[in-house]
Write a structure and sequence with these properties.
This protein has two domains: 1-33; 60-213, Beta Barrel (YmcC-like fold). The chain is 13% helix and 53% strand. It has one helix spanning 3-31; strands at residues 60-65, 68-80, 83-92, 95-105, 108-114, 117-127, 135-140, 144-158, 161-174, 185-192, 196-201, 206-213. The termini are far apart.
Length: 216
Amino acid sequence: MPVLLRRKLVIRSTLTATVLFGVAVGLLSLSITPTTAAPVPKHLMPKEDAVCFATRVGDRMVSTLGDQELTCVITKVEKTDAGLMVTQEYEDAQGNRPDQVVVASAKGIHVVEYAGKKLNPTFWWLKLPHLANNTWKEKWMNFQDWEFKTMEWEEVAVPAGKIRAIRVDRTETPLGQMAPGGVATMTTYWFAPGMGCIKWASKDRSRVLKSFTPGK
């Protein structure tokens, strides 16, 4: 076979093989169904701040305030779009009496009723997500201006044990008839996940958690 003819046949075979290979690759790519990425497992997702309040019916907190012993119990929990609406009541020999109703969520603790009265305006005991030096302002029944400031997580020693909690400093400024001669004061609160306020302390008073019994 002449050399020139042999070269032409080799070139033609090479081109044919290249074309067939390209067609095969194209058909293979069409036959593959695209897949979407699998969702990230929940345990690997960033975690929200824990709800810093007792949220089970029957949760019972016994605290001491000076020489007094106070018992609070969760009597009602309702799911709402904003979070869990939790009713907390004082319990003593005379029975139960209202303490507060809060909406507890990953956004914080929002107080909507206090001492049996609906609040207007309402206020926040705690705002989340937790950031050191996060501040917000509230008004308490036209008697005081409150300015809150979240501090760091702290390990707090109370009679119930050592508990990790978020510290919140509240500055109270008198208003109206209370303002003349009044000076700003500060109260510090510590809020623990699943419990709520385990301790608060002002200049001359403090209330600390003695025991916590979870509801069933």
